[in-house]
Fold this protein.
Amino acid sequence: MLEHNAPVEAAIEGELRLLDPEIRRSPELVGALLHPDFHEFGASGRIWDRASIVAALAGENEPGARPATASRIKGVQLAPDLVHLTFDTDNNGRRAHRSSLWRLTEERWLLYFHQGTLYDSDAA
């Protein structure tokens, strides 16, 4: 069952912030959204930890590139401290299905796990 409550909305807001090029280029701002135990299975097939993804995003510097767009964002609160989001992204024609787990810490909701799977728009 899809939900629209404060935890789901907080996770969606965090996810959209992570797509913002200004946020992505700032290790401090990205780091503020990632759980200390963050890990990701990237659409590239690479496995990322918190430090490696912060460094990679800080190195993104493609002037004039369009920011990635998100669509079909859906969320469900799995537990009082856990939200699961699914959505699709389009990054200049590179499309991926995405899944994220957001965990509530003492301070705020943080991205704990993320996975991206590339797809062909004709097969979606």
